[in-house]
Protein: Scarlet
Organism: Limenitis arthemis astyanax
Amino acid sequence: MHTLTKADDGASSSRESSSLEDTSNADCVDNAHEPISNISSENMYIDSGIKYSKYDEPMFDEVEELLGASSAPRPCTLVWQDVTVHIKLKHGKLKRLVNNVSGIAKPGTLVALMGPSGAGKTTLMTALAHRNPVGTIVDGDIVMNGLPIGDFMHRESGYMHQDELFVENLTVMEHLSIMARLRMDRRTSPLARKRKVNQLMRQLSLYGARHTRIGGLDGQKTLSGGERKRLAFATELLIDPGLLFCDEPTTGLDSSSAQKLMTLLRASAVQGKTVICTIHQPSSELMALFDNLVLLAEGRIAFAGSASAALNFFESLGYQCPITYNPTDYFIKVLALTPGSEGASRQAIKSVCDRFAVSDAAKELDMEIQLEFHLMDHEDEETKRSKFNISYKPPLLHTKIIWLVYRYLLIVVRDPRVLLIRILQKLAIAFMAGLCFMGKANLTQAGIQDIQGAVFIIIAENTFIPMYSVLNMLPDEFPMLHRELKAGLYSTPIYYVSRMIALFPGLVIDPTLFTLVVYWIAGLRGTLYAFGLTVFVAILVLNVAIACGTFFSCAFGSMPLAIAYLVPFDYTLMITSGLFIKLSTMPKYISWLRYISWLMYSNEAMSILQWDGVQNITCPEMSDDVAIPCVRTGEEVLTVYDFGPNQFWTDIAALVALYLIFHLLAILALRYRTRRK
Ligand SMILES: Nc1ncnc2c1ncn2[C@@H]1O[C@H](COP(=O)(O)OP(=O)(O)OP(=O)(O)O)[C@@H](O)[C@H]1O
């Protein structure tokens, strides 16, 4: 049953033992690139369904088909020594997640990071990949090709997450094309970019699904789990990283899809990449694809070395893997906490880790690490630099904005029903409202209230529903935003600006349509000047409302919290709009609120457009003995509402200022939120 050990025949062990002498990265890569056709059949053997050359290198006839005959990736050697990871808890205490862990991953190797749930695999891998969550403290040395890891890891390494996140409405080709624009060197020609995308789609069997949406609208074909994983893999391969981290890539896949994906990872290693992979209890066939195994338990190393050596090590401790057991399952069983007897389990795990720390395998590993450090120390700067993609030029700021805007516009275009329903709904409300005011907007005493009412309807419709509808937009995108920020694809302000630009067409069309219908049905002032500027103010109102809603969603992070704070705020806005209370009579301690009320500014501006210069408001017939108060001019109407007739452009300036302030506050809140993660 112990079929996981391709080293059982001795071929692998000879490589293991020679690995200390064979420290040249180039050798690893060269071996990996020996043309398959040059190896005769007597120089190969088959184990676990995988062909191996006499050099014990898996012979993927399909390597070139799988991953193409691209140029050899930059060799990446990652060494980590005495790495300890703590996380800061809320009350300031530190919790240790990874404890004094060392290891090495060389070019052309596929390393499995295994252990029971909660062992610290993901924590260690994010530390090695320099993609730690905020609040993580990493101690120890992590060195890639002689340099302590840093932000350069974004361009030198790829990171496949356990749960892949995509903009679901995009097709495979759109996703990869946009990612190519965001990730690849800006000097890459459009043809080369296109070729790369096509090549990856073919190699990863995604070409047939290139026009399939990743996730979907009802009834539409979408990608399978395996295809999604392969797409995530393709996304990482766009920059052809020398180092690849994969967090549980087989989770959620059936055995055939898992085998397919792992074969791809193996092929990447054969090409010369360094691949580090966390994996949960792989089958023997899958385990056979790995060169090295690192077993973690309770944040410590329980074993590091080849799979066959792991069997020997556990046997030496008295843990004899039953013949019917998959060895990896057995290792995990030994290292997992047993419910009900956690104390005894912890003691047993500690004993395994302690024994490994003084084992020959640990000493060998330590020697290998020391040797690697020694070699790195003696490399000159030029050699070190040649191992990095220092000439990489990230896409320019405007390129990122254009492609992000394109991505978010596609979301709208992909589902035009949402847009159509929104427009129809808007028009229906506009007709309803317009019909209520039809024939009422006259220059009479009663008409004053009707005109002011119609103006307020235009303002309210462009404020409340849009402000609330935007509350879940950014929080829904936070997980993906965090991930793409960590991958160094763009910055928070670039994301925010792009997101808002993509919204903008809707923010112009919506208020224009609504105002157009209400204005003409209600029969508001029939000059082009008044109509045009009313539409302009309505557009401004909607944009300020969206900016305000976005700020609340960024500041409070979730829709329920944002609503809790927004409701009292919107009441304040409404009360101070000038329609419900005479602004000059408001108590001093509260009257300042009118200055942040865009409802007040817009109400004043639209009222001015309706009443400026009006001189002929009719009064009811008066009997000789009763003097009925009567408003005869537009200026008097404005005075009734405490609006200044000359305030129009001041109101516009205030609306623009509020628009900018809310967006600025939203960006600051979003930055704070994304930095905390
Ligand atoms: N932010 C955090 N605050 C507190 N504890 C944390 C935090 N992040 C991780 N942990 C704890 O650290 C331990 C290791 O977590 P990690 O995700 O690295 O485990 P894992 O081995 O990848 O587990 P799994 O296989 O289930 O994904 C777990 O016990 C987890 O609860």
Notes: The radius of gyration is 33 Å.
